[in-house]
TrEMBL record:
Keywords tagged on the record: Cytoplasm, Methyltransferase, rRNA processing, S-adenosyl-L-methionine, Transferase
Gene3D superfamilies on file: Vaccinia Virus protein VP39
Keyword rRNA processing: yes
Full protein name: Ribosomal RNA small subunit methyltransferase G
Organism annotation: Parapedobacter deserti
Length: 214
């Protein structure tokens, strides 16, 4: 399906200038695959698909400006929807291993189709509720799923004890808006990092990464 995305994939290349040819091609292909799949199974609002690279791909990669994932790191993306933030992160960190889960099966179909079309080998996608998952990971990433207090209850027991990265294992949650109430409600020791310190576009002025070491 032909749609003109604004901005184009160049915004990803500009913020991540060291990508390999394979990674550049994988990011470019997302601009064809998501409009195609989204027309059949809604994973991004119809209007927002034009902002795929800014609102979805680059937003997901905010986590990669905050931390790297060393080879062998295991990452769980809870409530991944069509694959955000999991798919952009799996492209960027081909030697880390990503499990993407969602409670809606048809969204997982989109994740599998996109991952397979771009030859992503470091992803597995499962139709399962986060609370039912019985695995452990170095990091749990997520965007826009539920309030932090509930989220923490779902995933705190899924974090491996032994750290293998520069930052301690834990939760990396992409959030917008005022977070103080949510963090206080959850009684968590959380660090809030504004994405505007990594990206200059106005979209990121209200966006944050919440990092909760577990
Ligand atoms: C607003 S969407 C966000 C999707 C994606 N993370 C994104 O940012 O584009 C929230 C997603 O969380 C999923 N979800 C909600 N509760 C869940 C649970 N308990 N376990 C797994 N997925 C869940 C929903 O099915 C939905 O796809």
């Amino acid at each position: 399906m032909e749609v003109t995305l604004d901005p184009s994939v160049e915004i990803i290349y500009n913020y991540f200038p060291k990508l390999s040819d394979t990674q550049r091609e994988q990011f470019r292909r997302l601009g064809e695959l998501y409009p195609y799949w989204n027309a059949q199974i809604n994973v991004i609002s119809r209007k927002d698909i034009y902002s795929l690279y800014l609102h979805h791909v680059l937003h997901s990669l905010g986590i990669a400006k905050f931390t790297n994932f060393t080879p062998g790191t295991r990452v769980l993306d809870v409530g991944t929807g069509g694959g955000f933030p999991g798919i952009p992160l799996a492209i960027l960190f081909p030697e880390a291993q990503f499990d993407l889960v969602d409670s809606i099966g048809k969204k997982i179909k989109v994740v599998r189709e996109v991952a397979s079309a771009i030859g992503l080998k470091n992803i597995a996608a499962y139709h399962i509720r986060a609370e039912e998952l019985d695995e452990k990971y170095d990091f749990v990433v997520s965007r826009a799923v539920t309030r932090l207090a509930d989220f923490y209850r779902w995933v705190a027991n899924k974090i491996l004890k032994k750290d293998r990265n520069a930052i301690a294992n834990g939760i990396l949650y992409l959030k917008g808006g005022d977070l103080r109430d949510e963090i206080n409600e959850a009684r968590l020791q959380a660090e809030v990092h504004p994405l505007s310190s990594f990206f200059s576009e106005a979209f990121f002025e209200t966006k944050h990464i919440v990092y909760i070491p577990v």
